[in-house]
TrEMBL record, chains A, B:
Keywords: Acyltransferase, Transferase. PROSITE patterns: GNAT. Residues 4-162 form the N-acetyltransferase domain. This is Thialysine N-epsilon-acetyltransferase-like.
Length: 181, 181
């Protein structure tokens, strides 16, 4: 069986990657949260001030998926920063189509992101996973990842746009005082 | 009492911000993880390819801290990306010195980061908090934040540099197959 090639995503691949983004969200039972359009995704990654970087896994045409796709996985990442340890690479998404799993494609994508991070002077690679996705978590732990929620108690939080707007218009003086903020 | 002014961090403030970074890590009982030097921090934020952005809270000299400091808090952030919702702003650190808490400085810093995020087209502001830091979490929830670990089951993970190196040199074929990677 032909190997999947890992290469940077190009603008013309965006539609295929958005297809995979939707598949991943469906797998995570969170597809109602997907609001991005093909066009926005392309502008955000390939405009003059890109917000992300992306690798794709591509198989030869003769090995395409049942529905004719040759881009069968992707890893999306960007650079972040730890005030404790400096530069980080953040793996936002890692996904391989079900029919192409078990062939090491996910690990190749993750390895390629780690290599890019090391070349850029990053000392950590961070990511998030859903607690019920036990086979993925077992895979990550086998590769040496640390679950910071389990070991140190970190929780992920989010303000949606309306809450951000509330923060901006709120009365700063109404804050009741708390630690450490 | 004079208000704290919120303004962008300048290169000459880096030493003061690193002082606050160490204070925050001590509060979090994780100060052994702080490896950054003043110089690295300054290069990473004020070199030709900055990895973060930072706001500081500054009080007038007559309101300085007991040990003579006028920079009494900081909020460090960068832009990230959600493949579901597009541009995000990530609040990596938010800290106010204990003797200046309860005056709304933390909320002013957070509000300023939210405003910058909205101006840049971000639809979310994300951050992480330690589960035992209940007063901080209560503060964030009052402002409209959602705890994604509690509500959706997201866990934070990290590969350290040695594990990243292991990913790079590992045999891709040794992967046992897992979902969704």
């Amino acid at each position: 069986m032909a190997q999947a090639a890992i290469r940077p995503c190009r603008a013309e691949d965006c539609r295929q990657v958005v297809r995979l983004i939707r598949e991943l969200a469906e797998f995570e039972n969170l597809s109602d949260q997907v609001k991005i359009s093909d066009q926005e995704f392309c502008e955000d990654g390939f405009g003059k001030d890109p917000f992300y970087k992306c690798l794709v896994a591509e198989v030869p045409p003769e090995c395409c998926s049942q529905d004719g796709h040759t881009i069968v996985g992707y890893g999306l990442y960007f650079f972040t920063y730890s005030t404790w340890k400096g530069r980080n690479v953040y793996m936002e998404d890692l996904y391989v189509m079900p029919e192409f799993r078990g062939k090491g494609i996910g690990k190749k994508l993750m390895s390629a992101i780690a290599q890019i991070g090391l070349e850029q002077g990053c000392t950590q690679m961070r990511f998030a996973a859903l607690d019920w996705n036990r086979s993925a978590i077992a895979f990550y732990l086998r590769q040496g990842a640390v679950d910071l929620t389990a070991t140190e108690g970190w929780h992920c939080f989010r303000f949606e746009a309306d809450a951000m707007q509330g923060l901006v218009v709120g009365e700063p003086g109404s804050h009741q005082g708390s630690t450490p903020v």
